[in-house]
From TrEMBL:
Cellular localization per UniProt: Cell membrane
Organism listed in the record: Actinokineospora bangkokensis
Full protein name: Sec-independent protein translocase protein TatA
GO CC, one annotated term: TAT protein transport complex
Basic and acidic residues composition-biased segments: 42-55
Amino acid sequence: MNLGATEIIIIAVVVLLLFGAKKMPQMARSLGQSMRIIKAETKGMREDDQADVAKAEAGQPVAATPPAQLGVAKAEPAPTAAEAENAELKRQLAVEAENAELKRQLAASREQAQKNAG
């Protein structure tokens, strides 16, 4: 199945309409973070394998990774107070921006209703 330029453009427009322009940057950011985590985990696994090979070549016993640790993501450090406050302020700003947009839409719909009634 070959996708041409027109099909890709149509798919992009449909995705944009479904998810909206506001959600796209957030989704891209989330995808980027996921890719970074996957990259870091695969790099860590590769380094572990190389270390095991080096130990085996040196004649040292290689310890097996306990099953409980397989596939477990590394814990991120807890955010500092400043980071938590920054995140809260960003959340509040986003809520205020959304409220302003809703107020604008409400005013526009009231204006339209008045035009239709009068």
